[in-house]
Amino acid sequence: MGSNTALPPAPSHFPARPQFQGFQKPGGVEADVSNLEVYGHIPADIDGTFYRVMPDPQFPPFIENDPWFNGDGSISAFRLTQGRASYRQRYVRTEKFVREREARRALLGKYRNKFTDAVEFKIRTTANTNVVHFNGKLLALKEDAPPYAMDPETLETIGLETFKGQLPSLTFTAHPKFDPDTGEMICFGYEARGDGTPDVCYYRVAPDGTFLETVWLVSPVAAMIHDFAVTENWVVFPLIPQVCDLERMRRGGEHWEWSPETPFYIGILPRVGGRPEDVRWFRHPNCFPGHSSNAYEDEAGRIVFDLGLSEKNVFFWWPDKDGNAPSPETLHSQLTRITIDPRSEDLELTAAKNVKVLEGSNSEFYRVDDRFAMRKYRHSFFDMMDPSLGTNFPAIAPVLGGGYPLYNSLAHFDIETGETEVYFPGPTHMVQEPVFIPRKGSGEEGDGYLLALVNNYASMGSELHLLDTKDFTKVVAKILLPVRLRAGLHGNWVDAADVRK
Ligand SMILES: C/C=C/c1ccc(O)c(OC)c1
Ligand SMILES: [Fe+2]
């Protein structure tokens, strides 16, 4: 648009919608807090930083019913050392963030629809979905663009990360995988040649940032590929049946539409040395693949892929073509094992042959001991929603806000014994995604701590709850924050020993 074009009116406050109300009221806070209050005690062997990101719109949107996923990325860094905790909060200085701050108003339009923007952006990402530590930098990630690099200590934004020009794709997944033995970062981008393109770009990056391999694939449909999985020899691409249509976008519509007719496709590609024609697209009846827990190969060479699987459209704010979407309370995601013979002639995956529910609770945000990523593993930690645990829903309903699924507890599932242990943080609390912290000196899988951000709807403030995985149901430390941090997506624990000096 030219500079004389009138901008759409910019509201001065956030709309009266669940995703902007109660606990979800945007905070806009950046902070440095040198000492946080601790109830209980932080074990002396914990020394590192928990980084996580949340969407937190800097300005009220000028579009209708902006989803939670469109807020500006704001990074929290919780530093735990010598039994103490400190905290820093910074927005990622994306092009969008900087230009909106200069203009003192929202300029970006709808989620991933450039045709609705008030100005033209080179890069319109919000960098709001994950934050990982790689090659001495933090990478703030959203799947619609390259990463933004940040300083791990100061959280200053360094700039758009194109890996010295090596990045072949317009996009970069929010869920790169790290090989615990080699430090290699395994990635992909979808819509890798632009909005609505079926092109998927697979790439592997050495720990020093050198690109090792790129493979261009074409997916059977331009669908969302949010998380993925890697084994010793294979990469697994689960397609969410949310599909993109550039024409709809041009008309000012949504980037995504739920497609009940589209199967749940799973692409399988050799991890190393695959050619574009080597990708094989397996099919399963329509459903919604959520986050991965882990994946590995069994003795027979089959891929064992554990993930959250829901029957219904979890992204209920992007309905089907007739406007149909489930109500959020009816969503139920289960930790599910899909077993695939990568060499099978038969591309149809069936409930009887290939699918098994491992844990039937309503769960999401699975985390493992990352030293066992891509390998046979035994322990999965996750968020769970079990209304029978005693959440006081009538009390918190007026301040919950909404626009996304809620979880009221943390769980540890032992795949070997089939047992689930549960931590319930309290009747006026909800949990965010946990991180696993290995115990110093212990190589035993799952031996360590679980750390999660907790929303306290009685205090309307945030807390970190720290659990010892050997005594999972009790809290070791509650660390109180002087701020309210709205719902976030993903984060990671970075041990002080792994930070390059
Ligand atoms: C479960 C979260 C999935 C997700 C997928 C696409 C996005 O753009 C996003 O933004 C925060 C989150
Ligand atoms: Fe995710």
UniProtKB/TrEMBL annotation:
Entry keywords, A to Z: Dioxygenase, Iron, Metal-binding, Oxidoreductase
GO molecular function per UniProt: carotenoid dioxygenase activity; metal ion binding
InterPro entries named among the record's database cross-references: Carotenoid_Oase
Residues where Fe cation binds: 175, 226, 291, 490
Record-linked Pfam families: RPE65
Necessary cofactors: Fe(2+)
Free-text cofactor note: Binds 1 Fe(2+) ion per subunit.
Keyword Iron: yes
Any single GO BP term: carotene catabolic process
Family: Belongs to the carotenoid oxygenase family.
Name used for this protein in its record: Putative lignostilbene dioxygenase
Organism: Coniochaeta ligniaria NRRL 30616
